Amino acid sequence: EAQVTQNPRYLITVTGKKLTVTCSQNMNHEYMSWYRQDPGLGLRQIYYSMNVEVTDKGDVPEGYKVSRKEKRNFPLILESPSPNQTSLYFCASSFDRGYGYTFGSGTRLTVV
Amino acid sequence: EDQVTQSPEALRLQEGESSSLNCSYTVSGLRGLFWYRQDPGKGPEFLFTLYSAGEEKEKERLKATLTKKESFLHITAPKPEDSATYLCAVRPQYNTDKLIFGTGTRLQVFP
Predict the structure, then answer these.
(1) How far apart are the first and last CA of chain B?
(2) How far is B91 from chain A (nearest CA, A)?
């Protein structure tokens, strides 16, 4: 089944403790992206990647890092999480930027 | 400033009662308008892409249309399983890596 898999689905952590949210797609898509979704603000792009080793900032990149060492994987790294990063996070992939995204099921992160 | 506004925020319909959802946008040049459906606890699911004014796309009970300033998602004779949040997003011409989302319309269809 074609899908984008994120892990974990739920995560509660403490301020300052580094964490990684994994994302993997099995569709051989070139384009991958991370979004956060907050009530009243909609989906906002954090980072995106056009191909292996090619990444760029989205609208809200502060406090986040990404890497794209393999085509299928695009992990999101929070080096020192803070409470304002409490949110619902989605990874998405696409054959090309002009096509619709396939989204993962989301990771609900709470930073206390 | 680029902006995507969806209305209404919430919509309650009786099963079979047709209606439309609106997505108005302000962006410097449009390279695509996307509609997604999002069920509670799940990621958005892609529905349609529209590229130019006058274009229409259909899928089952849904029909999306596009003008120069807005898009409509028409729902004909909805069923309870159409209940979801519908999201609109635009891709601006000046940065085709960017996708600007609206905050969505939450649709509830009652039997």
Answers:
(1) 41
(2) 9
